[in-house]
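hey so u asked for the seq, here:
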Amino acid sequence: MKQNNAFGTTRTALITAALVFLLATTVLVGWALNIDILKSIMPNWVTMKANTALGLALCGIALALSGSSGNNVSRWIALAAATILIVLGAVTLVEYLFGMNLAIDEMLFRDTSTPVGNSLPARMSPLAAYCFLLSGIALEIVAAPAWRRKWMPFVAAIGSTLVAVGAVAILGYAIDGLVNVQWWNYTGLALHTAIGFGLLGYGILSVVKGSGDLVWALKRNTTWGFVFGIITLLTSAGISYHFTGLLEASSQWVSHTQDALRELQGISTSNLSMQSALRGYLITGEKDYVADLVRAKTTLKGHFGAVRQLTTDNPRQQLAL
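ran it, structure tokens below
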């Protein structure tokens, strides 16, 4: 009788586990040596946080060891790594949900970078935290023999979710780079983080497939119907997000213009105050008008500096000033 491969340690699972671990350790080296290109790939892209890199490294270890049959030490290491992933994801989500700082974001390295998009300086995105929570649960199930058979469809669903998250984020980066259209709100997820989760999800799916429990129960026409529906939903959501982003950008420019007009009005008002104070001094000779003149001049300089700052992106306005 042909014996099945050690559960979960298929060649595909081992390769993806090694790739995820290598990716994570490379980013950790970038944090340790302060090499920006290893942390964010491109200067204007969001960085992979140190905690995210640590979590992906644990994912690689757990994926490689979770299917070791007859090796209790490897299985316990996998269970411990999966538990840490669950805690890491859950605690980070608690920080977001309740506006707390539980001092875990900079437990490895201090992040002095400028936030990009909707990312925070040291904290992984909520999506990354949720993916770690799901990954920990899936790897915990795979590493526990008593849970494997009953919960493998759930593990397959988690693997598919991770692949979908990674694919959508990578697609968003590709569309933004090729046609300069921000199609999806992926800015909280670094590109290499998306690649890592995609590889991890694929590895988890290969584990389920290696166990013989990955069986597609839907008919072909029904499957294609679901695929078409999902693609339609993603496309609609992407288009909606894109136009919402354009509306938000337009609103910001309107607000920016109003701020500039407010400072210009302040310049005009301060100028009139200076003229009034000067006339009062010339007519009466009272020194109180001199103090009013100095105050108006100081206010004028403040408004002038503010409007210069607001128009730094417009050389014509700078020349007019």
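Residues 127 and 152 are 23 Å apart (CA to CA). The first helix runs from residue 11 to 33.
lmk if thats what u needed
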